[in-house]
Design brief:
754 residues; mainly beta; Trefoil (Acidic Fibroblast Growth Factor, subunit A); Pectate Lyase C-like; 15-stranded parallel β-sheet; 12-stranded mixed β-sheet; 2 helices; 3% helix; Ricin_B_lectin; Ricin_B-like_lectins
Length: 754
């Protein structure tokens, strides 16, 4: 980690340079199949095991016990593998005597778990073998307090074990001296405590990656599922697993840590219809020192929190929406439990929420709260922006750097799923509001429209561009359930007022260079809760809102993008020239992160090329919470008149190879992060933070962070420039105005321009 020189009046901090953490154990529990009969295992603590074939899932790995290559012959390895619902992961429990079971393949029950060579040694492997009554083929399931089991071999007295506590696919299981670790703990679908019961009656089919909880379910089964999902996702930064945990109205005493690609949401029309007590909902730093600068891609919505501690820790960075929440107590936006040497955080967004106590920002470098209510706010580093809030501090930029705008001029909140008093599932689509201050739900039902769930096509793993576009063409809205969806053609949204709502960071990957989403120039489209991730064949654009040349006014019913995120590289060597192009007028962007990957896989100047993040061509476009980072040319280009931005955060690319590769055709050193075209006569922006971290060549120069024409109608308020880790130079804040920042003078501000 790189130490950044201290900013006067602040603590010395490490840079936002991403740091991959080592893998921890993970777990996954699958819901029980409907109608499973149960049998009690004598002598095993009254444990119950299913009589129908069941799934066995490692608490330590989150992987399913699996017959390698779906084989059943003698000698087939019994391994762990990503859960996929196949017959290779179905196991038949048949009692022998004294509480022991033979555990056979669901498709060939006589082929059972067998310790090779009748061994009693540690590390002896397991396989399938025709059952012959051998003690090495019998296992005692011992139920643990959590409801999970460890399996003790009758011959050796040793436990079924994942070697080295591995979380990798295709690791053959072994026996090992019982030690009580998660590597020897397994959940069994259909057992009493191994996971939640079936979803409530009337629940739509949301596919395999959505779990719906009901207050009638046991607290232990709910906690088991929540914990296992977190263990699977806690270090799954670039994995393909996606999860949504949905809670029907009621009160739940549960502890909910939130990992990558996980959404936790209430299903009430009001946040207060779902109340989480006990441990509450929380996110800690991702490293042992509490660093949270890689805590991306997680989502919490539409719930009331009453944690026993009185405080909610939400130590996050980009792409972590916290929406429509009622927090009884305070909030910490950083991890204060692991010391203060490296617990930096780089968020963030809170919207349409009420926090009754104090929000403490701590190590957060920047943050936006929008249309929210707070008891008070404490803390500041570089760029804290408050728009349409109640209880926010006054505008004191730059000391402390608070930018406060009293009202959101035009706003539309994110749609959400709820269950009404008659048990009907619906999607609530909030109405457009103007001059907004505070949450829309505190004084009664939010203004908006309820849409019955049968007007939605529920996209599930296995759907394709063909099936999804067919649903759109038939007039359906979309709920995109958690998963990774490869698209052979763009999703083409042409009907006015179409709602596309993603769950669990549902991810769209365009194949063969196509655009993932295109829209017509029509009223009222709402796209929310999606991650669009570039593939290895270059896409000219990842998403286009309206065709080129769009001119229609949509002031009364604009298209809105909420919690839509873009990624080029990091998971694979993705390529995309431009991430988002907005051609339609009056579009509202509400929390967008456009990111060219700077760490992990497929990262390099020529490996994950991405020229520009956002291009706005439409008139009167408004952006709240705009994060754009590491693109190789302009991060944001604004060509349309009447644009507004409330909060902007951006970093230079880390990997510029030389100054010549990062000089404009007009001779400017580097590419401004935020560029307003010379033809623009009206534009306004508040609270912009632009940081240089030119890691590979620290002597490189960015001539100016913001580029704009000089016009009475173009105005900028409250700008911050910073050099991270002594790597880079920014000569001016905006055009030729504002002081330089360098390794020795790493931070400065400019209050207004012109």
């Amino acid at each position: 980690m790189i130490q950044v020189p201290a900013v006067p009046g602040t603590r010395t901090r490490t840079s936002r340079t991403r740091r991959r953490t080592s893998a921890l154990v993970a777990a996954l529990v699958l819901p029980a199949s409907a109608g499973l009969a149960l049998v009690t295992a004598p002598g095993a603590g009254a444990a119950t095991l299913p009589t129908a074939p069941a799934t066995v899932t490692g608490v330590g790995s989150g992987k399913c016990v699996d017959a390698r290559a779906a084989a059943t012959g003698n000698g087939t390895a019994v391994q762990q593998y990503t859960c996929n619902g196949s017959s290779a992961q179905q196991w038949q429990f048949t009692a022998t005597d004294s509480g022991y079971y033979r555990i056979g393949a669901g498709s060939a029950p006589a082929q059972v778990w067998d310790v090779t060579n009748v061994s009693t040694a540690d590390s002896a492997l397991t396989q399938l073998w025709l059952y012959g009554g051998g003690a090495n083929q019998q296992w005692l399931p011992v139920q643990e307090a959590s409801g999970a089991f460890h399996f003790v071999n009758r011959n050796s007295g040793k436990c079924l074990d994942v070697p080295g506590a591995s979380v990798a696919d295709s690791v053959q299981l072994q026996q090992y001296t019982c030690n009580g670790t998660a590597a020897q703990s397994f959940n069994v679908s259909g057992s009493d405590g191994g996971g939640p019961t079936d979803p409530p009656a009337g629940t739509p089919d949301f596919g395999p990656n959505v779990t719906v909880f009901d207050p009638s379910m046991s607290a232990s089964s709910i906690q088991s599922k929540v914990t296992s999902v977190y263990n699977q996702q806690v270090n799954n930064e670039f994995g393909t697993q996606r999860q949504a945990l949905l809670f029907t109205p009621g009160t739940y005493n549960v502890d909910i840590p939130v990992g990558y690609y996980t959404q936790v949401s209430g299903l009430g029309l009001s946040p207060d219809q779902v109340n989480i007590t006990g441990g509450g909902i929380h996110v800690a730093g991702h490293t042992s020192d509490g660093n949270a600068t890689q805590n991306f891609w997680r989502d919490v919505e539409n719930m009331s929190l009453s944690p026993s501690s009185g405080s909610t820790m939400w130590a996050i960075s980009q792409a972590d929406p916290f929406r429509r929440m009622d927090v009884h107590g305070g909030m910490l936006l950083y991890d204060n439990t692991h010391g203060s040497s490296g617990n930096w955080s780089s968020g963030g967004y809170i919207g349409n929420s009420r926090i009754t106590g104090q929000i403490t920002s701590g190590t957060q470098q920047q943050f936006l709260t929008k249309n929210s209510s707070m008891g008070s706010w404490n803390g500041s580093n570089w760029n804290m922006v408050f728009v349409g809030d109640q209880g926010a501090p006054g505008n004191t930029f730059p000391s402390p750097p608070y930018t406060t705008v009293g009202q959101s001029p035009v706003s539309k909140e994110k749609p959400f799923i709820y269950v009404d008093g008659s048990g009907n599932w619906q999607v609530f689509n909030p109405a457009l509001r103007t001059n907004v201050q505070g949450p829309d739900w505190v004084n009664g039902t939010s203004p908006g429209t309820s849409i019955p769930i049968d007007q939605f096509y529920i996209v599930k793993p296995g759907d394709t561009a063909t099936t999804i576009n067919a649903a759109l063409s038939s007039g359906k809205n979309l709920i995109v359930t958690p998963g990774v969806y490869h698209l052979s053609a763009p999703l083409n949204i042409t009907r006015a007022n179409t709602v596309v709502l993603g769950l669990g960071m549902a991810t769209l990957v365009p194949d063969n260079g196509v655009t993932a989403i295109t829209t017509a120039d029509v009223d009222g489209i709402d796209i929310a809760g999606l991650l669009i991730s570039a593939n290895t064949t270059n896409s000219a654009t990842l998403m286009q809102v309206g065709p080129a040349g769009s001119t229609a006014s949509h002031a009364a019913n604009p298209t809105t993008l909420q919690d839509v995120f873009f990624r080029v590289g990091g998971d694979i060597a993705g390529k995309a020239t431009t991430s988002l192009v907005v051609n339609s007028a009056n579009v509202i962007g509400d929390h967008l992160w456009l990111w060219r990957g700077d760490h992990s896989n497929g990262v390099g100047w020529n490996t994950n090329p991405a020229a520009q993040g956002l291009i706005v061509n439409g008139a009167d476009v408004t952006m709240y919470g705009l994060f754009v980072e590491h693109y190789e040319k302009y991060q944001t280009t604004w060509n349309g008149n009447g644009g507004r931005t409330y909060f902007y955060q951006s970093e230079t690319p880390y990997d510029v190879p030389d100054q010549g590769s990062w000089t404009t055709s007009g001779g400017d050193l580097g590419y401004a992060s935020y560029k307003v075209a010379n033809s623009v006569t009206s534009h306004e922006a508040w609270g912009l933070g632009i940081y240089a971290y030119l890691r590979d060549h620290p002597n490189l120069v960015l001539g100016h962070a913001i580029e704009t024409p000089t016009s009475a109608g173009v105005k900028f308020h409250d700008m911050v420039t910073t050099v991270l880790g002594g790597a880079g130079n920014i000569n001016h804040v905006i055009d030729q105005t504002g002081p330089a920042v360098t390794a020795s003078h790493s931070h400065d501000t400019w209050t207004t321009y012109p």
